[in-house]
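Data availability excerpt. The first of two example chains:
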Amino acid sequence: MTSLPRRPSMTDVADRAGVSYQTVSRVLNDPHRVKPATRERVQAAIEELGFTRNRAARALRTTRSRIIGVLTDGSSLYGPATTLSAVEAAAHEAGYTTLLASVGPHGASGERTGRELLESGADGIIVIAPHEGMVPALEAIARTTPIVSVTAGAPAIPGATMVTVDQARGARSVVEHLAEAGCRSVVHLQGPPSWFDARGRRAGFVEAVDQLGLDAEITEPGDWSPGSGARIAEALLRGPLPDAVFAANDHMALGLLHVLHARGVRVPEQVAVVGFDDISGAAYFTPSLSTVRQPFDRLGQAAVARLISGLGPAPEEAAPAAAPSGLAADLAPELIVRRSSSLTAPATTDEPPVS
C-alpha cells in the first residue's frame, strides 16, 4: 500500500535552508530579528517544501491559536454578507484565520455555538448582529467569551464591544440632499423594524425632516426585497406623488423604480429616489441610483483590531498592537449622488471596487 506523504516540519525547513530550528522559528514569529539573506533562504525553503504552520502546536505553546470565531445568523442579505466578507479579509490581513458558525435566524443555541467555537480553538468571537434575533446569542456568549459585536444598535451588553456604521447619519445626509435639491415632501420606504439598520435609518429620517420642516410620511415596513419595494410603491401611487422617496435599502429602491417606470413616472423629474447600501450594480440601475455607501472594509478592520487588542498579550508574545487610529467604533457612511435624485449627476458612474 502506498503511504501518504508526510507533512513537512520546521526541522525539514531548517535542514533545507542550512540553518537551525531556532532560526526557522524566529523567521516565522519575529522575522525582523533575522538577517535578510538568512530570512530569504528560509522563506525559499518553506515555499519549496510547502511547509505550513501547525496551529495546534503553536496554541499549546502560546495559548493562542490566531483563530477568530465569527458568529452570524446565516443571512445572505447584502449587509450581513458583506460585513462577513470584510471581517474575514481584515482577519487574514492581521495574520488570523476565521472559523464561521451560524446560529439561525433567531439566535437560537447561541451559547452552545459560541462554546463550540472556543472549543475549536478560537481566541475570541466577532458576532455579526443585525437584528433583535441575535441579542440572546450576544448576551449568552459575552458572559464567558471575549467578543466584539458588529451591529447598528443592539442594546449595550456587559462584556461586549460594539462596532457599527452610523445608520442615522446616513439617513440624515439623504434628507439634507433632497431638501437642497428642492424637495419639500419626502416618503421613507422603511425596512423591517426588528433590524437595527432599519431602525437607525428611520430615526435619522425622522430627525432630519423635523429639523428641516419637510412634509414626511413613513410607509409600512418592507422586508429588504425588491418585491416588497414594488408592493409598497403600488400603494404609494394611489395617492398624490411626493417629491422624493428614500428607500431603506437599494433592493427596495429597485422595486420602487420598477413600478415608477411601469406607471410612466419620470425619475427624478417627478419623483427623486435614493436608496441605501450602494450594492454592486446600483450605478447601472435606470436611472443610476443615488444611495448611501457603507465603509464595510473599515468596519471589518475595526472589529478585528478591537478584538485582538482586547485579548491582551499571550505568553511568549509581544503585546498586540492597539486598534489603529481612525478606526472609530461608530463609522460614518457616505452619500453617493447619482441620476435618480439629481438631473445634474452623470447618467452612470463607476461602481465601487468589489472586495
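And the second chain:
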Amino acid sequence: MRQDVRMSEIRLGIVGLGVMGRRTLRVAVGHPDFTVVRASDVTETDPGVPFTTDPRAVVGASDVDAVYIATPPAFHADLAVTALRSGKAVFCEKPLAVSLADAQRMLDAATETGLANAVNFALSDRDAVLRVAGDDLGTVRGVDIRVQFPRWPRDFQATATWLAGREQGGFVREVLSHFIYLTDRIVGPLEAVETSVDYSDGPDGTGSEVAARGLLRAGGVPVHVSAVSDLAGPERYEWIIWGTRRSYMLRDWAQLYVTEGGEWQPVELAGTGSEHTRLTLFAQAIRGRKSADLADFAAGYRVQRAVETFHRIQS
C-alpha cells in the first residue's frame, strides 16, 4: 500500500459486478475517499472504469491500494488472501466464506498483515442498530430471529444462480448471517445448541435450504431462529431482543419498535447506514481509525462459525 494513502484518495479495485458489485461501484465512483482504478468480472461488461475479466489483475495490481470483493462466496478466500498478501486492504461481501477453513485463512492473513479488513454487513451502521446498541435494555432474556421468503432466491437476485444451491447459497448464509452478526454485536458470540435445516432437492439434488430452525446461545442468552422459504406469505425480516428494562423489534431492516411493557411503539430514526457510509468507515480504517460500526474479519469469522453449524450438523 502506498505510504501516502492516509492523506490521498484511496485507489480502489472492485472484483465482481453482480448486484452488490455494481451498486458499490456506483457509490465508490462518487465517493470523495476513493478513486476506482480497476474492476473485474468473469463476464464481459462495460462498467465505465478500466476493466478486466481476470480478477488477479485487480487483487495483484501495483496501482491498487484496497479491494472490494463481491464475487460468489466460494472465491472470497483466495482473492482476499492474495490481496492482503499483496499489501491491499480488503472490504468483502458476506458471508466471509463458505467454510470455516477458508474463513480462518482470511482471518489469519488479515491478522498477520495488519491491514484494514471489513465485511459488508448491512446492519453494522444502521441508525436502528446504533440505537439498540447504545441503550440500556436491562438484563437480556432472549433474542428471536424470524425470516421468510415467498421465493428463494429473491427476484432481484435471479441472475445469481449460485444462490439457489447449497454449496455457496441459501438464505442461511445470505440473509440469516446479517442477524447473527447483529446478535453477536449486541449480545456476544453465539454457540449452537441445536440446529436443523430442510433442503430443496432443486433440479439436480443440490438445492439450498427451504427451512432452518435453531437454538443458539450468546453466553447464557437463548437465541431462537426460524426461517422458511417457498411459501404462501409475505417476505418478512424480524429480529427481537427481549430485555427486562425494554425490548426492541427490528422489522424489515429499517423499522424499529420499542416496548417497556405495553404495545410496540415505533422509533423515529435518522435513516443512516448505506454503502456510502460503510465505504467511509472502510477509508477511515485504512487510515488507522477503526470503527465498531464496521464489521471486520474477526466478526465475520464468528458469524461464519454460527451459520455453518446449520449445514455442518446435517452432513
